[in-house]
Specification:
heterodimer, A: mainly alpha, Arc Repressor Mutant, subunit A, three-stranded antiparallel β-sheet, two-stranded antiparallel sheet, B: mainly alpha, 2 domains, 10 helices, 5 strands
């Protein structure tokens, strides 16, 4: 749609005397054009438009194959949104497969309602389609683009709204999980126009109001939404702290952050009190109900949810209280580099951020100009006609597997273990153990080996073999027994410990 | 008058420097030529003169190798067309932003660019590069809340902000058979890092069962001594509306 200036034209005609107006009409035309349209109307329009891709699901149902036409996509979408909200920020967030499983019972009920035998293949196909539409798979999971007319300074302007419903993200465990966009979450919470803190306050006020009116089902849902708000608030503050740890200069600690922190701290103090009151109020109601009452379960759920919100807020409060000390610590840690005068650019704030902020057309020019600096030298290839011809004229090598005789291989049992002690050393140590004639202390045996100028590794192995023989699990092939008869110790050439007695087998048997 | 043998060996040294995978530790001739470059000033002058004539600049030399950079309009200079990994205009913009984000993730602060290039910088993953870009996009998106949406006219004329292009591209997508989707930003970043790996700028390693890329000395020197200031100069000039 083209922009037009109806007001300007009318005013011009009035000024030129070509258009005669009544008093009321003239007053309207002389008014500032913003009075014809105010920004709150634009805001409401945008809220309405966010629902458009969801409502279009119903239109798509009409064009499905006959065997799938009885399925209604809209309730499936809402169930999916609700389920994603419930698990957002928790350990087991919803992935693609889980989302499909959630929808299958509803699809089966739709099959039955239409008098059809449930067909799992069709159900899965339908669930996949709903999910694909909500992710906008048709357009590579980009946001839905919706055009609408806005009015700016007396002119109609056609604008483009980007709407994302469900997005796929990496979970910390590496899985790809589903998350609702902020816009959709806000739309579902009916809180699109307000910020996180206000939405949180509103959600809790709703819970209190619903509790007072005994509307427990709604209270459960509201408590779930309140928990989601808590998670988002925590993520916001955690990002500030992480950025501070990474690089102090990325965060405005002079004005922005102190303001956000003190405001959040005040907000949290209030929220903790409110949540405590909600839990208290729900407990009181629970005590007044009969044990078998269904409402007791809802109240228990509300209490658990609000307690979780409170716990998350307490954690966040700790994070906020530590934030200033984190800043002071990081200021000290990064102080040297911070005060270092540097001629080098800050790639994040001097290059990347301005480019992302710039009009796309300008960013494209900058990318074309800067890319050669990022990727280094390109080695030009020179075409050689001679080499090309030689390659082309080479006789083709046919694979001839039969020309290489394949001999049957003989499998040999082998060990991959690399011995630490060489066979020679092992043989030297072995000789001492096989030639035991009388009971002897370990220390004496080792001393005998040292006196015979045996290598230190042979002495070490000798001690180890005796220890192995002492362990009932590790007994080797030697015919002697190791006994610890007393607390006598030995210490020879770096080896020290208990001094057990070694008994040749016959001696021991006697 | 230059000794023809010196001219020949100078050419050999430049050829070694242009091979992305050549290492002085394993290639004896390369190591000997580097020693000669470091020890003999006349030989150094010959190498620099030939490089200058070819449109190359010797950025740095150490026992780890020689780093060359192309002069403007050099036959050795990479163009966008050489690097192009996809045909869409959106994707080409993303590829460029990703290359800048890789350098930014390796050197997040101005002071990092001052550090000794012999100190190996930590390895990075595609997810970390994506986070660098997404963090900025989120901040800019937050700042734009309450502002009017871009008009259709501005959209057609490319007058909307570049962050919207990156934001609109998914970072993860589920595919059949648990394959990586080729159209996500994470995959684009991996391709960018693989390209740099072929250029001898990164080596691949595994970090907690995820693919990570460690910058080589060559890349660190290239960014610290040559690219960063030039990129900044170009971006500043363009944003101030000056002719390049």
């Amino acid at each position: 749609m083209d922009e037009y200036t109806a007001t300007d034209d009318a005013l011009a005609q009035v000024k030129e005397g070509k258009l005669e107006l009544g008093r009321e009409e003239a007053r309207i035309y002389k008014q500032n054009s913003t009075e014809f349209w105010n920004r709150f109307l634009t805001h409401r329009l945008r809220v309405l438009l966010y629902a458009e891709p969801i409502l279009k699901l119903t239109q798509r149902d009409e064009h499905r194959a006959p065997e799938m036409r009885h399925y209604d996509s809209l309730p499936l979408a809402l169930k999916l949104f609700d389920h994603i909200i419930e698990y957002t920020g928790l350990e087991y967030e919803i992935d693609n497969d889980k989302a499909l499983q959630v929808l299958l019972p509803l699809l089966e009920m739709m099959d039955r309602a239409a008098g059809l035998a449930p067909d799992k293949t069709l159900q899965i196909q339908m669930a996949e389609r709903v999910l694909a539409v909500l992710r906008n798979d048709e357009d590579g999971q980009r946001p839905f683009k919706i055009t609408y007319t806005d009015f700016d300074q007396g002119r109609a302007v056609e604008r483009l709204l980007s709407v994302r419903l469900i997005e796929e993200r990496y979970h910390t465990d590496g899985r790809i999980i589903l998350r609702l966009s902020n816009e959709l979450t806000n739309l579902l919470l009916n809180a699109l126009s307000i910020d996180i803190e206000d939405a949180q306050a509103a959600a809790e006020a709703i819970i209190q109001s619903q509790l007072a009116r005994g509307r427990l089902h709604e209270a459960v849902n509201s408590a779930r939404l309140a928990r989601l708000h808590s998670i988002r608030l925590k993520e916001k503050i955690a990002r500030i702290v992480t950025d501070t740890r990474r690089d102090l200069s990325r965060v405005d600690w002079k004005q922005d952050v102190p303001h956000i922190l003190s405001e959040s701290l005040e907000h949290l103090k209030l929220r903790c009190r409110v949540e405590q009151n909600i839990a208290k109020s729900a407990r009181e109601q629970r005590e007044s109900l009969m044990l078998e009452s269904e409402e007791i379960h809802h109240l228990a759920e509300i209490i658990a949810l609000v307690e979780e919100c409170r716990r998350r807020h307490m954690e966040l409060q700790q994070l906020l209280l530590k934030a200033r000390s984190t800043f002071l610590y990081e200021q000290e840690r990064q102080a040297f580099t911070l005060h270092l005068r540097t001629s080098r650019p800050h790639l994040l704030s001097d290059v990347l951020q301005p480019l992302l902020q710039a009009p796309r057309i300008l960013a494209e020019s900058a990318i074309t100009a800067t890319l050669p600096f990022c990727v280094g030298v390109r080695i030009p290839r020179v075409f050689s006609f001679t080499q090309y011809m030689q390659r082309q004229l080479q006789p083709r090598r046919e694979p001839r597997p039969e020309s290489i005789p394949e001999e049957p291989r003989e499998l040999v049992l082998t060990r991959n273990d690399q011995p630490y002690y060489s066979p020679e050393i092992a043989q030297r140590a072995d000789n001492y153990l096989r030639t035991l004639e009388r009971p002897i202390r370990l220390g004496e045996l080792l001393q005998r080996a040292i006196d015979a100028d045996e290598a230190p590794s042979a002495v070490e192995l000798l001690a180890l073999q005796v220890l192995c023989q002492f362990d009932p699990q590790e007994k080797g092939e030697y015919i002697f027994t190791v006994l610890k008869t007393d607390n006598e110790k030995f210490s020879i050439e770096g080896l020290a410990g208990d001094n057990p007695l070694l008994l040749p087998q016959e001696e021991h048997d006697v | 008058m230059y000794d023809p043998q010196d001219l020949y060996t100078a050419g050999r040294l430049l050829q070694w420097a242009m091979r992305p995978r050549a290492r002085p530790t394993t290639d004896t001739e390369y190591r000997q030529l580097l020693d000669r470059y470091i020890d003999f000033l006349p030989f150094r002058e010959i190498v620099c003169t030939i490089a200058d004539g070819l449109g190359l600049q010797v950025v740095d030399v150490s026992s780890l190798g020689m780093v060359l950079a192309p002069a403007e309009d050099s036959v050795f200079s990479m163009t966008s067309a050489d690097y192009r990994l996809s045909n869409s205009t959106d994707d080409r913009l993303l590829e460029g932003l990703i290359q800048l984000a890789i350098a930014t993730t390796i050197f997040p602060r101005a002071q990092d660019l001052e550090e000794d290039s012999m100190i190996a910088r930590p390895a990075i993953t595609a997810e970390e590069v994506d986070a660098t870009l997404r963090d900025i996009c989120e901040r800019l998106e937050e700042a734009s809340l309450g502002q009017p949406d871009p008009s259709v006219e501005a959209q057609a004329a490319g007058l909307y902000e570049a962050w919207r292009v990156y934001r609109d591209k998914a970072s993860a997508k589920t595919t059949s058979g648990a394959r990586t989707s080729p159209t996500t930003t994470t995959r684009f970043i991996e391709r960018g890092l693989e390209f740099l790996q072929q250029q001898g700028c990164f080596i691949e390693e595994s970090r907690r069962q995820r693919k990570a890329y460690r910058p080589t000395w060559r890349y660190q020197v290239m960014v610290q001594e040559w690219s960063a200031t030039r990129i900044h100069k170009v971006v500043r000039a363009l944003l101030e509306g000056k002719e390049l």
